[in-house]
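Two proteins were folded this term; both appear here.
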Amino acid sequence: SAARALNASVEAGARYSIPQLPRASSGMVGGTGRALGHGRSAAHRHTARRPPPLMTFMAVAALSVAVAHSEQRPWVDTWSTLKLLGEPYHENLATANQAMNVWKYGASDPGRELVVGLIHRYGDMDRRADDVEYAIAWESDGRTLLEVQRIQMSCPGVDLVVPNRGPYVYEVRLQALPWSMHPECSCISSSGRPCPHGVQATMTSSAAPWLLQSATDSHFVDLENEWQELIADGAVLNRLLVDTSAQVAAAGPRPINAGSGVPADADLACPGTRDDLLGGQEVTRQRLVDSGIRLQNNTVQGKWCLVRRGGCDETAKVKLCEVSGAVGTIVVDHGNFEGDQTIRIRYNRAEGERAQRPVLFVSQADGEELFRQVASAGNNVTVSLGPTIGGLPPASYSEGSGIIVHTMGLNTSGLPGGVHTNKSYPNVFGTAGWVEVSRVRDLLFACLPSEGEIRIYDVSKPLVDIPYLGKIVARCSRSGMHDYRVLDYLGPDGKYMTCLVDPDDTGNRLFYYDTQDPRNPKKMVEIHANWEAAGDGLGQVRPGGQNWQYHLVTWHCADLYCGKNHGDGLYFLNTSNLSLPAFKVPLPMLSKGGFARDVACDHLDAGVCALSLTWDGLVFVDAGAKGSANPFRIIASNVGVAPWSDNYIPHWQAYLRMHSGAQKVYPSRLWPKKWYVEHSDFSIRPLRLGDAIRALQLTEVFIAEVKDYNKSVDYGFPGPEFADGTSAFAGTGGTAITKDPASCPWFGHSGTVDVLECMDKSRCNVLVNGWDCCKPMGGRGKCPVNHPKMCASETCDGEHCCAQDCSDKGGYLRCEEMECPWLKPTDQNYVMECRDGTGCNTASVGWDCCYAHGGRARCPANFPLMCMDTTCDGGDRCCEEDCSAKGGELGCVLEGSSGAGTSVTQPPPEEGSRRRRGGRNDGEDGRDRMKVGMPIAIALVGVAGVCCCLVSALSFLLIRSRRKAANANAQAIRPGNADASVVVGRPVDAAGGGDPEAVEAAPGKVAPWSAGPPSVVKAPSKGPL
């Protein structure tokens, strides 16, 4: 009903166009930025935000000095650009993995772009047999999507791989999984093994066999464990490894020793009722054996056990047949129902149960015919199924395996035209766990779970040949929440690297390989991304930042994973030095149940990235482009508003929010700061009725555009943190940052096992010379490659420790701890370290002992914190156990930072000031200065008061004209969302090595990845009011 209501509003022309409200430019952002003008035209929206012309003139004339520093806040405009077909087709996006992308050139106009993706047409939503899948190309003019090409896939359960550039897409058959809706698509035919599989019945009274078609078309069996998780035991059709062929026998009368409430009807095979331990889902084989319950007369021994549905759970029937000696069970439906029917058979893993004997489920019509034939005197009925037994294929099915290459959008001459050609490669491999194409090279990576390897193929000329190049030996599977499992990129040293993202979903691992020569991949680095959870929840890993330097990592935690509500941060890994600790951009706007679903960076300005937050909406991150005043900060948001947060989802089922709202995001190739966003419409009622297909409708695509973002303007939003929760860029101002961590000499490693690099650049072997070999050379500069991290703890030979993990050694050593020595106290009580390196004991020579030595550099161990106040002992900074009464703890803002204030380095005491023990300045000098300054201060206050009156009067007129709109929007602010626009990142340098994805490869040719940077289209930015 929610989906239909949304359809009706879209058809009525009520498009969602939702800019964020302009925000105040100082400090944190308050509220969610409620959108203006639901259903209004763009002209109405902009008019609503614009003050009257006369008021604008007066405001500019009177307030130009007061607000010259202000800037229009970035805001987000969103609108619906595509709605898939509804009744009677019921089309949905099927864009898991790499099944959707954006190409640079349109089909009819090179000035437009193509959006290419996979859709699934359900048709009758209650039946699987009529499902169809299509690869579709939509042409975009930046506002709307128009379908220009549609290609039917060979089966309704395939994977489509859409690379970052055209004109080729790759159709792939996937390995069958327990939850596969179309396991027939995973059937690979060979000599004597037809596809799809079927169920065949033969009778002695008739020479002609007949097919039990309902077992493949409409009646299905799922196997599950005691936690209601689907399992992949080979006991159902399409997963059998060997044939099963046996005669059929009816289950017969009431079982021996059955419970007292069991119906006496024949062939029900119920050991108990649904309400007891013998007839419900929890029953085990051993319990039936211990209870002595069996079918009578051994009629099913060595035969198929034919039972009727009803009276007890199907699990109890199947297990009773098994303990009675049957080779398998055929469950007959108890009515002729419309649509597909499914039964679930539960096996208790804790009791050691495995599904080893086949289970079939057939329609009432097929079943009654079996009962009739079995009851016929002298007639033996045999049912056969397995890998050598073929069946009738669905209408949309055709045999296939390996890879089918399709051209889309461009014809073979490389010109617009949309001519479709294809070529099949059935012998490349059978089925795959997943397949992805590199974003920077003509390489295809294919996960083959049965082989335990990831193969690499050359797809530079896919209509000619797809030659095998090499392989990475690694377990892999299609499990896990992330869509992308391969991130191929050009490293800072000019060599190609490949990151495998937790390829087997076995513990949040990132594996980095040197694939400069894809025929011989070499594993270089393994990272345990345990920043939010140790074993699960790892989401997308995508490139971004200046020269695509960073890998951005999201978390798919929500309420089901990671043991917490959600993954509440976006993490950055620096590929120029993977030994650097990851740092985190907090996402405080995430609500319970939502998570960071996907992230994608602008192709034209890789420093701006879109992050989808499912039910909560969208945020946009400045990911580190050159010249940005907002490094690693959220610059705009579209959260808590339609269309993302429309669906009603009860708070006690908040985990379902991850299926609603903004899903995957794709950046435009032609228009900067513009993204295509998949929208999921979720309805709770169908889910309560067990109908997940109707509950989850992925039928709409929106465009989201960031407007009025000027990267040179400091918006003053909070900065990122290290993965351990500490501030990555510590300081007193909102935008103050430290030096680039890569400039700290101890970041990175020496590049050699067991070899230290000292501060004077000399090197020594710790096994030969000992771990203290760098002491005479100024100390340790870089750690050995086998102990690559330098830790904050100085307990290793009197120096900072080298380790693989610094969690038990004070954490990672950061630049501030050397550049700002006051962050770490001395190791002795009452002993201070002065700025010239000398030490002094305050207990014997007094607290002003550092005055003659440039001031205090480090506080004693028993008063470890250096405070902001300079009121202690002659104007020096105070050392305390708690700085709350002394102006707060002194942070660290290094020289040359982009902070708003001056750098907080230790100023020496003023030479001309008088001092006395106790820290008070000489009162006489102070009073003299006050006498001179007071009249000036009073005069300034008077002038300021007059100006404030004028400003207040004009501001009152402005506020009054906009109060009505402001009040309406204030009602829309979602409680608890105190920051709808937090900032993060350095934007991309227009001349800093362009995005290799922007270089288009002509059909059949390798793209020149070393080509120069693409041109950058700069979005206009508004000046101050």
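Next, the second protein.
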Amino acid sequence: MSLSHPLTSNLNTLQKHRGITNTRFDRFTQRGQFDDVNLQTAQWRMRTSDAVALSVFRPPGLKRIPFDEAVKGEYQPAHIGDWFGPTNATFWFKVAIEIPADYAGQAVIFEFDADNEVMIWSTDGQCLTGLTGGGGGDRHADYPLTSNAISGEKFNFYIEMACNFRGGMANGGGMDLDRTWRLAVADIAVRNQLGFELLGYFELLKQLTRDTPEEWQINADAFYTADLIINQFRVRDEDALKECHRLAAEFFAERKRTGKALHTITAVGNCHIDTAWLWPFSETIRKAGRSWARQIFFMKSHPTFTFAASQAQQFAWVEDTYPTLFKDMQLYTEKGQFIPIGGTWVEMDTNMPSGEALCRQFLLGQRYFENRFGKRCTVFWLPDTFGYSAQLPQISNLAGMPYFFTQKISWNNINRFPHTTFMWAGLDNSEVLTHFAPADTYVGQCNVGDFVRSVHNNKDKVYSNKSIFLYGNGDGGGGPLSEMLTKLETLKDLEGLPGTVRDGDPSKFYEELEASSHGLNRWKGELYFELHRGTYTSHGLIKKYNRQSENLMREVEFLSTLALANPHKRSTFVYPKAEIERLWKLVCLCQFHDVLPGSSIKMVYDDALVHYRDVEASGKKLRDEALKAFMAGIESGNSTSQAVAVINTTSWPLEADVVEVDPSELTSGAQLLGTSTWQQFSKSGKALVYVNGITTGAVRSFALGNKPADFVPITVKQESMKGSQVVNADGFLNVDTKKVFVVENAHIKATIDENGRLVSLIHRETGKESIAPDQLGNVFKIFEDIPTAWDAWDVEVYHLEKGWDATVGTATVHEAGPLRVVIGVTHPITKDSTLEQKIIMTAADGKIEFETKVDWHENRVFLKVEFPLNVNSDIATYETQFGYIQRPTHYNTSWDLARFEVCGHKFADLSEYGFGVALLNDCKYGYGTKGNVMRLSLLRAPKDPDNTTDMETHNFNYALYPHRGSFLESDVVKVAYQYNIKPIVHPTLVNPSALVSADYFTVSKPNLVLDTVKLAEDPRVTGHNGQVDVILRFYEAYGGRGVANVKTLFNVKEAKFTNILEDLGDSIKVEDDGSLNIAFGPFKIVTVRCLIGPK
């Protein structure tokens, strides 16, 4: 060894002071203090900004514009030190570089850093790579120009600057819209390659000393080598630098594993990009472009590098916005490096979307990937979603994906999930092979600790010796950096680490995992996420639009299919397939796991409301056009009498209902059908009509004064109570109620106090009382809601310790029967918020409804409504997609306690032998049941990341429904479904001698639900010759099995089972009467594809 400053004593041997020496290691590489005397002095050989000429174009309004517009802009000189902004603004730069003579023969890079995100474009409009400025692990601010520069060589390109951080725009309490960014660097530079590589080696040596046990030999060897390198280093001494580099390189080269590894880690690059979160949808398009362009750039020089990208929506955006990049993505997919994965339209929330919406996520995603890349995905990929529905294993299998990946359950804040690799079984016992990344991250940095954890945290090494590891900057995109790729190559097959590391494809990883694992454990039911429980409630308006949009799309498809396939049709109706698909894509987009849960910035919700209103306007137009075409096909001629046609699109008969008719929609001068007069008008002037006996999937016409022979009117009377005291479930209230309203119909008898609270609800058939003795139902509670960390995301169990009763108002009767009784009350619930409520009962059914309007202006409090029920049960039943989940009503164990707030869809039910009570809703998702007290979560008031969350007027409805029998014996599924899917009311002229009446579907078993009727995605027939290819999707709702006879008015020529991707399967016999006998099992999703011909 030859050094310009030879060592002269033995004092440079390693001393035994690990803590101090570890600090010494940090000082040797750190920026800032000491970087003029440490390894940072050996990173660059030369640098200049003089060779770089910059000019900038400020687009009108500083908006995002395409490349073709940007190049036509007027560019003005720009310089280092200039400021750009505000937040969300866009600037375009022209860059002209001429290589100086002294740079000839060198590898030259261009470095651009304004602490924000940029895309580099070629002069002919190709996106070359994305850069991220700033500091820390996010920074990737360099773009290689040439590996062998020529004096006078010129480079010209464009830069598109986005004024936001990679991590978004939030500032801990909303959006920081006034921020500006300073251009700090716009240089060309030449690296000191030896110094640069040594820095990478040294960082890994430091990690080996800290992230492996001290008892391991590799830890001791790394500790010694790192200390020796520091001792050998001299500032600005090339010979010393070479010696240090040799020591580091030999350390890793000598430890390359030659034998078989005990554990294999498959490393997959990724850049999880939230489709919207702390930035709007429009910025996500650019994030995807920047991130994926960077990875394609790396692939050109790293042939073994593999990178997985999910979310078909983002691919579609890139295809439209960056067509040349998209072609590169297709090319590198063929090479096996760029890997489309996940099979869904977006990485959606899976708690709140309906079952059909989840099916559409898979249908849209898989069809897109198959069309653009020639194959479907096999791995269902959801690394960051806030809990996983119990029906996902079945739906994933039906979409051709037998494998599932996430890591989010590692965030649980109460219990540690016991498995890493296991079989996850859904409600119907469908299984998917599931693997959680044991490093507990999807943004690994390829550090030593990442790979150690990938083995040590694997809880199932007894059954499998394989783990997956995801690396690359994420959430805001970015992906792997070149430093990560270098670290990965260095650590592959490193003797001393507990596993060998290799690049890989997730699909192949799962295939090998499936082939080599044995005796895996099985987890049955939902993967409940013990965190982010507040997301069932935050941003209530978005959740309302979600439910309404799902219901509207169901109606559009149902009616459009009837209009197209109607054997009596007289119209030339064309099924609006393209528009229906466009609207479903918007619905699915807004179900992204930071949008629907309510955890994004305000800008995202401004955009989401635009999308939802688009769905609402276009969907209603499609529905009305389909309804018009459908009714034209069945209405008879010579129609002169005014009636109302009612269409029941649900899977069960509609025994009775009271519907509203706007008198202005009636035909002027037409004679009313029948001899009865109007029975009741609403307070707002709507005519109320009693309708009854509408069978499954049927249309019926009714006289406006319809009054069946067995009709029993509803009544209301005011009574006094004898000074009895009633308290709510938590003993917060002591009320001496003196005045009550008693409302009765043929099904229930309700007693409502003068403040609109439920004193009693008697189920007439059983004689059972629904409300617990000496307690009140429909009580509004306000709880302090200050979580430990994630404001919009979290509600913690201790919020239940600190709650109080909302201030109450005085109730009055608004409508008094005979069809409907309405009691109104306005509650000044706080000093800043009010709640108006109409308590509604009709003569038609046995539920009591609460139509609610809240003007909400609060700070970190939680509004709930509670019902103490006269029911004893250790479990409560909550609807989930295509079925239900039962959860404990006690806190016996930590696993029970963790589920203090849970997700439910249209109902929650508490039942005992012979009797039960269901709490229904039309747009809420958060429930909690403790003992006999059931609460529905209504509104929250978090301030981060959107400080305006829920600060607006809200309208929502819920209802209480007592029933005979336990849940499994009840019709709760039907009642909740019909509470959300209302009958379609269509004023019409009829021929009194030929009233409109047709049954389009009947299903013989009430537990087999006909949920979806639609045109097939790739119809085998055009429909112009009278043939139609129709999809019917059913699900079993109660956990039973059997065979259902399904009759339809259509002329079914052929029927086959399919998966949710509509691939043809086994045939179903068409019976002599044209019906189908469909076998089903517990919670099974059954999709049938019918070829329908003319009668």
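DSSP finds 18 helices and 60 strands in the chain. The chain has a mean pLDDT of 94. These notes refer to the second protein only.
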